[in-house]
Automatic annotation (TrEMBL):
Belongs to the DNA mismatch repair MutS family. MutS2 subfamily. SMART domains: MUTSac (SM00534), MUTSd (SM00533), SMR (SM00463). The keyword Transmembrane does not apply. This is Endonuclease MutS2. The keyword Membrane does not apply.
């Protein structure tokens, strides 16, 4: 994509907002280089990885990405034999630690049946360098200080240092506490100059302590002297410090060499963490915008539901539906310069760029965007003072460049096409330019205030008129895009609202042709109809979402019910078995006691009577019904086909296969309910044989196409009754004992009409409303005689 287009459509500002969500400089670097892709498969993968990250954030809330550093320069220096500083090694250990955490974190998420193949593939590339991480952490603390325990020698040297420092302080403490100290010292303190311990002595007593003068105060009245008695101790201390520094250098050299040994693995870790930081930054940005994943296509089709401009605050932005590339490939947004047209243009362009860059878009679920090879935009004031070009000339330069490049895989956005010159010539040019771009098969959206272009949308196939709604009451645009409705002039209404004399307005109206007045009235009527249709469409979408949610909830509850039912039955059976076993044990004990009594007391109890008593006790024990579990048959695996009768193991219910919805998943009809079931949860029962029909040509094979239900929702009353009459005949010919008719709840008129017809039908035995799991009062169940 051209950098100019990215700037004009404000994609650069989106990148700036995205930067706020990066956890490291590595992620920030990838964001700064982010540009939209024109490769369909790459865009699909980019969208998938962002969606996976959004799923992880939704489930886990956050990811352990803090503590990543750009360690690439450290790796490079270690490879050529350089010694890394303690701070650089701490950054190395921190980055390795984060890589281990992320690997474990993503593996755990994946193991929790959350499918994240792209992120898991990234995690699998990480090689945990635990030994190197531990070696660094055992030698250096988080602040970069080399620890005493880094080596035996360093521990010994640090012990000697502390011992020597204590002896030096002890001697100096005795000096500053002596009786003459108050007179000879400027202050009773011990300080350090040039890494050696000194005391502040007054100028006139400089010879009293001997030793070495290291510094003096600004006035010259105080000298910082190292007394002669501690010179040797300070020398020894310095010698130990040199040895300490050498040992620290040796430790850092050894750790740097270990880093060099793992250079390749560390480079992979850096690349993976950079990718993960970038991916999760995209997901966090999408979450902040309340964005959704668009489905991508390669057919130039754009369907955006309630799309918002991502750079306008959510409490101010107006959401619009934008549809392009379905029945039409060009949209012409007409109307006066009252605002809103350019925002709609930029919303489309920016959403398209974001999607092709792998970002989620601020629109409702179900939105769809295309992958264009190029996006061109001529938007805004293009006046060039440097080139001495007028606004019109600058626009023409851009348009000429676009016409030289555009093809059928392009999206072109024109703002105020033909503006800046004579209106008649500008409108003619605009029509000619649109014709040329439209002829090449590109997807085009153009805004204009020329009334001549309203007719363009009606006279060209594949072109749609649109406008931005204007509220005459508030004298401001609503920013609501109206597809299919051309813009109309509001000059008279605005003038009237602002107080212009009615006579002047009437005189003005007389200068406008009757046709124009009629057109404006027609457009006003169209706007009202469109507004009402949008409200009804939104209500329908909301109802559909609620129905889908209810269906999913019902499926979930059914699964839980049957799982609990099976568990309770199994538990009850186990309990009953335990009780019976206890009873048997007790009975056997009674028999043993009786035998003992017979032997001891010569009681007249015969052996065959004891055996008979035991048999009767055994027979008294009820048989425990075992929970039915499908026996594993070592037979050839059945290839499921639509129409097969199956048992849904998760529900322990029989049903029939409707269609295969995905690899390893089928839509199954259980009574009136249709649901998706995994193939592994299905057990083949059989394929229903088609019943032989009577040798009448008119009905032969009809039963193969007759469903067990008839859906009348959305049908007109008269058409619905005709369908019911035909359906009942077909169901009778198919020998169905029972069918379902779905009429919905609604106002009840359709339901009453259907049931009245069924009550009077001679072949209908009984009708009733469906049960809760069959659709309730929205369904009538019909039983035939």
């Amino acid at each position: 994509m051209q950098e100019r287009v990215l700037k004009v459509l404000e994609f650069t500002k989106v990148r700036e907002q995205l930067l706020e969500h990066a956890a490291s400089s590595l992620g920030s670097e990838k964001i700064k280089n982010l540009v939209p892709s024109s490769d369909y498969h790459e865009v699909v993968k980019l969208q998938e990885e962002t969606d996976e990250a959004a799923t992880v954030l939704r489930i886990k809330g956050n990811v352990p990405l803090l503590g990543i550093y750009d360690i690439r320069p450290h790796i490079k220096r270690s490879v050529i034999g350089g010694v890394l500083s303690s701070q650089e090694l701490v950054q190395m250990a921190s980055t390795i630690y984060v890589s281990r955490q992320m690997k474990r974190f993503l593996e755990e998420v994946d193991d929790e049946r959350t499918e994240i193949p792209i992120l898991r593939e990234q995690a699998d590339q990480i090689i945990p360098l635990t030994n190197l991480e531990q070696a660094i952490k055992q030698a250096i603390d988080e602040s970069g200080e080399v620890l005493d325990g880094a080596s035996v020698l360093l521990q010994s040297l640090r012990h000697q240092l502390r011992s020597n420092e204590a002896r030096i302080r002890e001697k100096l403490e005795s000096m500053i506490r002596s009786s003459n100290a108050q007179k000879m010292l400027s202050d009773a303190i011990i300080t350090i100059r040039n890494d050696r311990y000194v005391i502040p002595v007054k100028q006139e007593y400089r010879g009293h302590y001997g030793g070495i003068i290291h510094d003096q105060s600004s006035s010259g009245q105080t000298l910082f002297i190292e007394p002669q008695v501690i010179v040797q101790l300070n020398n020894e201390l310095q010698d130990i410090r040199v040895k300490e520094q050498l040992e620290i250098e040796r430790i850092l050299t050894e750790l740097s060499a270990q880093v060099a040994e793992h250079a390749e693995e560390l480079k992979v870790i850096v690349d993976v963490l950079a990718n993960l930081d970038f991916i999760f930054a995209k997901a966090r940005y999408g979450k902040k915008m309340k964005a959704t994943k668009p489905s991508m296509n390669n057919d130039g089709r754009v369907v955006l539901y309630k799309a918002r401009h991502p750079l306008i605050p959510m409490d101010q932005v107006v959401a619009n539906d934008i549809i392009l590339g379905t029945n039409y490939t060009t949209i012409v947004i007409t109307g006066p310069n009252t605002g809103g047209k350019t925002v709609s243009l930029k919303t489309l362009g920016l959403c398209q760029l974001m999607a092709q860059a792998g970002l989620q878009v601020p629109a409702q679920d179900g939105s769809e965007l295309a992958v264009f090879g190029a996006i061109y935009a001529d938007i805004g004031d293009e006046q060039s003072i440097e080139q001495s070009l007028s606004t019109f000339s600058s626009h023409m330069v851009n348009i000429v460049d676009i016409l030289n490049r555009v093809d059928s895989n392009s999206l072109v956005l024109f703002d105020e096409l033909g503006a800046g010159t004579d209106p008649q010539e500008g409108a003619a040019l605009a029509i000619s330019i649109l014709d040329e771009v439209h002829k090449r098969g590109a997807r085009v959206v153009a805004t204009t205030h020329y009334p001549e272009l309203k007719a363009y949308g009606y006279n060209r196939e594949g072109v749609l008129n649109a406008s931005v709604e204007f509220d005459v009451e508030t004298l401001s645009p609503t920013y609501k895009l109206l597809l299919g409705v051309p813009g109309r002039s509001n000059a008279f209404e605005i003038s009237k609202r602002l107080g212009l004399n009615e006579k002047v307005i009437q005189a003005a109206r007389s200068h406008v042709s009757e046709d124009t007045n009629q057109i404006d009235k027609m457009i006003a009527s169209l706007e009202e109809s469109r507004r009402q249709a949008e409200l009804e469409h939104q209500e329908a979408r909301d109802l559909l979402k609620q129905a889908e949610k209810l269906h999913k909830d019902l499926q979930k509850q059914m699964i839980e019910f049957y799982a609990k039912k099976d568990a309770m039955l199994e538990k009850a059976a186990e309990k009953a078995e335990e009780i019976v076993e206890e009873a048997k044990k007790e009975a056997e004990q009674v028999i043993r006691d009786l035998r003992k009594m017979r032997i001891e007391k010569n009681a007249e109890i015969k052996e065959h009577e004891l055996i008979e008593a035991k048999r009767r006790l055994d027979e008294a024990a009820p048989e425990i019904p075992k929970s039915e579990k499908p026996a594993k048959k070592k037979t050839k695996k059945h290839r499921f086909q639509p129409g097969d009768e199956v048992k849904v193991l998760t529900f322990n219910q029989n049903g029939s296969l409707v269609e295969k919805v995905s690899e390893g998943e089928w839509q199954v009809q259980i009574g009136i309910l249709k649901m998706k079931v995994k193939e592994k949860d299905l057990e083949y029962i059989g394929t229903p044989k088609q019943e032989e029909t009577k040798p009448l040509a008119i009905v032969k094979g009809r039963d193969a196409d007759v469903k067990l239900e008839l859906d009348l929702r959305g049908e007109r009353y008269e058409d619905a009754l005709l369908k019911v009459e035909k359906y009942i005949d077909d169901a009778l010919l198919a020998n169905y004992p029972r069918v379902s008719i779905i009429h919905g709840k609604g106002t009840g008129a359709l339901r009453q009409g259907v049931q009245e017809y069924l009550r009077n039908h001679r072949s209908v035995k009984n009708i009733r409303f469906g049960d809760a799991n069959e659709g309730g009062t929205g369904v009538t169940i019909v039983e035939f005689k």
